[in-house]
Amino acid sequence: MGQIALEGLEFFAFHGYYDEEQKIGNKYGVDLHLKTDLHAAGASDKLAETVNYEVLYRLVLAEMQLPARLLEHLGHRILDRIMNEFPQVKRGRVSISKFNPPLGGICHRARVTLSRKAQAHTKEA
């Protein structure tokens, strides 16, 4: 087992509970941590044996481009996409930060972190 991480991804997107946030947009940060078996890729040196970082980035980008009211909902969508695209991922964790959230005071960023364990596949009788 091993971990693949993409940290410090940055996007300008149009998420937020308030309509104004969805109109003016904001800067967001995303960190991904995925647990998967890396032995085959380590032995073969073949990209097909692992989780492709470029594909991961494109999945996150696609979700970041679709507005959401809550960071929690956005994180849920990102994990859904990753787990569907890469069934070899056993666990996933995503952290999403909104920079300078509109709280009425100083706050550098608000962050939510969601974790998910892959569903065990059962065989039907």
TrEMBL record:
Catalytic activity entry: 7,8-dihydroneopterin = 6-hydroxymethyl-7,8-dihydropterin + glycolaldehyde
GO molecular function: dihydroneopterin aldolase activity
SUPFAM superfamilies reported in the protein's UniProt record: Tetrahydrobiopterin biosynthesis enzymes-like (SSF55620)
Protein's GO biological process: folic acid biosynthetic process; tetrahydrofolate biosynthetic process
GO CC annotation: cytoplasm
Chain ranges of the Dihydroneopterin aldolase/epimerase domain: 4-116
A Pfam family it matches: FolB
InterPro entries, per database record: Dihydroneopterin_aldolase (IPR006156), FolB_dom (IPR006157), GTP-CH-I_C/QueF (IPR043133)
Keywords: Folate biosynthesis, Lyase
Alphabetical list of SMART domains matching this protein: FolB
Annotated EC: 4.1.2.25
Pathway the protein acts in: Cofactor biosynthesis; tetrahydrofolate biosynthesis; 2-amino-4-hydroxy-6-hydroxymethyl-7,8-dihydropteridine diphosphate from 7,8-dihydroneopterin triphosphate: step 3/4
Task performed by this protein: Catalyzes the conversion of 7,8-dihydroneopterin to 6-hydroxymethyl-7,8-dihydropterin.
Family (UniProt): Belongs to the DHNA family.
Record protein name field: 7,8-dihydroneopterin aldolase
Organism for this UniProt entry: Hymenobacter setariae
